Fold this sequence. Notes:
This protein is mainly alpha-helical and 541 residues long. The protein has 22 helices and 2 strands. It has helices spanning 18-27, 38-73, 84-88, 92-119, 122-139, 146-160, 163-171, 180-207, 216-238, 268-277, 289-296, 301-329, 335-362, 367-387, 393-407, 410-442, 444-452, 458-461, 469-496, 502-506, 521-526, 536-540, and strands at residues 2-5, 33-36. The chain has a two-stranded antiparallel ribbon. Helix 2 packs antiparallel against helix 9, helix 7 (163-171) crosses helix 16 and helix 12 (301-329) packs antiparallel against helix 13. The protein is globular, with a radius of gyration of 24 Å.
Amino acid sequence: MAHSSAGAGDKIPVETSADHEAAAREEGAPTARVDYDVERVEKVYRKLDLRIIPAFWVLYFLCSAIRSNIGLAQTMNADVGHDLVTMLGLSSNDVSTALALFYVSYVIFDCPSNLIMSKLSPRVWMARIVFAVGVIGACFTAVQAAWSLKLLRFLLGVVIAGMWPGMSYYLTLFYPPSRTGKRIGYYFTASQVSAAVVGLVSAGFQLMDGAGGLVGFQWMFLVYGLLGIVLGWTLLWWLPERPLPPGEKRKRSGFMKWLPPTPEALTGEDALVHYEDLKRVYHFRPWTVKDLGYVLIDWRLWPLTLMYFGVVGVGIGTQLYGTVIIRGINPSFTGVQLSLLFAPIWIMDLIAILLVLPISDRFHHLRPLFFSCATCIQIAGLLVVTFAPVQNPWARYGGLLMVGFGLGPTVPNCMAWTNEIFQRRHGEVGVAAASALVSGLGNLGSITTTYALYTGWPADAAPGPHQYRRSNLVMIGILCVSILSSIVMFIALKIFGNEPSHRISGSGGSAADVSKDFEDGAARRELKQRGFSRSWWSRKT
């Protein structure tokens, strides 16, 4: 059911179309406002969920497995000398350099990749990323020396750059930013499930050691790489293109004529409901270099980047060095036991995502509070890992489970907050550039934890009761920076606000001419928090 409103004396239409609205804007006439029932709108978004979220979950699962399985390869079949370190004769510095090179190229190419996605077809670019990740992932099977490992890690960062912020940007083409937090969380769980499943499945790959002339970790690299190649092609048919205004036909030109078409995300009344609720994405303007420059000088980027820096550094450090930390807690664990103990860390992460992120979307004005509380849980977990008695290894392992629980809600909340702030202020180019810069520059934290900490810090990696203590304390320090940055951002937004940039609107670029361009149904609802209204238990009562 739709409710329409217009200025005094205007005829109230039954429905509006994109063509009529564009004509009204050109003539300076007021346009009709159509508001659909929230339940009808949510039904449309649930339909989009079925089309987009499963595809994102699968691609993120595979790409996360390919990105992080090098951590497991360091301990697989170590008892018979068939682990990655022994087979390639790697030093601790070789391992740390290879891990860090991935993030060096990722940081360099993250923003350019996302900007290209916003100019070209988002679904095609995403499929390209996954296909290339699969190719490079399969090539790891053939590594024979430290230099080839480092080269492939660098290339993997090049081809995967833009995937994570690109997924966040892609969501804003179909959902209002205030509703993206839990959806980012839904496919972010793929990383956690991937970490758990890859850890468990690696036990099976270790049993294949020697089959077909390949050792266990080579089988792991090969299988995941081939699956990525297949998925990359499949996404061309699976993911929908950017939505078009109702009644407008999609034109296939250039290279798009040679690629398979994909069904529209929405049709009929569903398409009209979505148009009225999210007009901002239908009337985008091509952005210019000047528009991008205004995004780059916006001070709001830097607190968000520092928030991301700490939590992603700890997350990647835990993902890559989790089995190493567990082995430091109890050196008698076998490779299979390490893999099995690694999985529950990410199960805790998954539980936190499913519990916290739907609530944070309902209270989206309080995202920094949710972020800071989750980060405090990580700090508490690292303190337990660091200072619990050496004689009680299970208590220290429990600290790792706390770290996993705290990690879950932080990254999705940070990305959703970035979407909210920069879509309103800078339009589509704001989301594309800011999400990539926050993700890319924030991943400098990953370089810190992979290159300078744990096995990359020989003095700290020396066996003994205080092994990795200083690395844990450094991670606690960067988490404190993340919390402080979220507080600064919250206060600064209260003082300076977040109105659409008039400098960009004056340039005729991609942002709105005036704030009324954001006056779609979703923008009017985002002024207030949903709270627990219309939750399943309130509807029941």
